[in-house]
User: What shape does this take?
Amino acid sequence: MNSKRFIFQQTGIVLLGQILCDCVMFGIFALMDRLDGTVLLGALIGSAVATANFFLMAVFVDAAADKATAQDVKGAQGMITLSYLGRMLGMALIFYAAAKSGRCNLFALLLPLVFVRPSTTVGEFFRKSGE
Assistant: This one.
């Protein structure tokens, strides 16, 4: 399978998992009678950032793997390090601004970062052998 196609497929799985987990989170907030606009906005921003982080990580890891295959291991390591630092700094700035604005529920903002792992795990469980 083409690596770019695989990246988009995995990102789609993560996005679908984010949507499903957000719906469960909304249900829990509704049961606690705490569902409001701050929860919705926090979940939207958190899910968008988590999905974008996963996508960018996959793109940079794919590019670094291509560099390593071309015998540029130091360049690949540097690319991975810069990608990690840039993504973490970007996420920290976005989360700080969203939390500081007071328009987002902090729990709903940060919880979607945890939803990526179960999404990829379930996606791997249903993947056909040979892909």
Summary: The chain has a mean pLDDT of 94. The two ends are 7 Å apart (CA to CA). Residues 37-69 form the longest helix (33 residues). DSSP finds five helices and no strands in the chain.
